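Preliminary data (for renewal application), iron/sulfur cluster complex.
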Amino acid sequence: METETETEAARGQAQEGAGESAPVPAQEIFITVSDALEYLFCPRFIFFERCLMIPEHQEKRYKVLKGRELHEVREKVNRDYVRKKLNCTKKEISVYLTSHKYHFKGEVDEVLFLEDGTAAPLDYKYAEFKNTIYKTHKFQAALYGILIMEHFGVDVKRGFVCYTRSNNYVAEIDFRQKDYEKAKEIVREILMIIQRGYFPDGTKQKARCVDCTYRNICL
Ligand code: SF4
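Predicted structure:
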């Protein structure tokens, strides 16, 4: 489960720039799905955190929100009820998966095995559904889909996000091949920033810079 605000839906284009670090063999590096969420908020977070090793205070906020989310889910969500609506024949809860092929890992709230023989990630959000699937939710689900396919050897054609602040509304995301390609590209770009010290463009949504930890060294 990941937390975020509505504005966490943008990403910039990574480009070569400042910072030289010794390349590390790709096989020794694994990023997390949380790294991908940070990258989607602003690609420079990865550079400051992982290349310059400057911690981001938002992490603290993230943990607080995550704790709230967990509490909310445990206390209020009838998970069986949510799953029943999805024609699921079997499920696994809190599944920690690693992609050795693409070098990332993450914990999926639930892996659902569906009647049509495919599987799907189900993620719980302490958030309202605002009639749209944010890019962050979509690519997070797609990354989980990649992890599930690699680990369980089944097709993943869709993902689900349960919005606990909208009466547990479950939104379905139909994955296309291009979604998976984009998700893999995000992982590749993050690995490139970490391995080669690329200084990526910052977010195009400048409102995010206002209370950013890195504002003084970034702009
Ligand atoms: S100041 Fe803006 S561009 Fe720089 S890291 Fe923060 S959010 Fe990104």
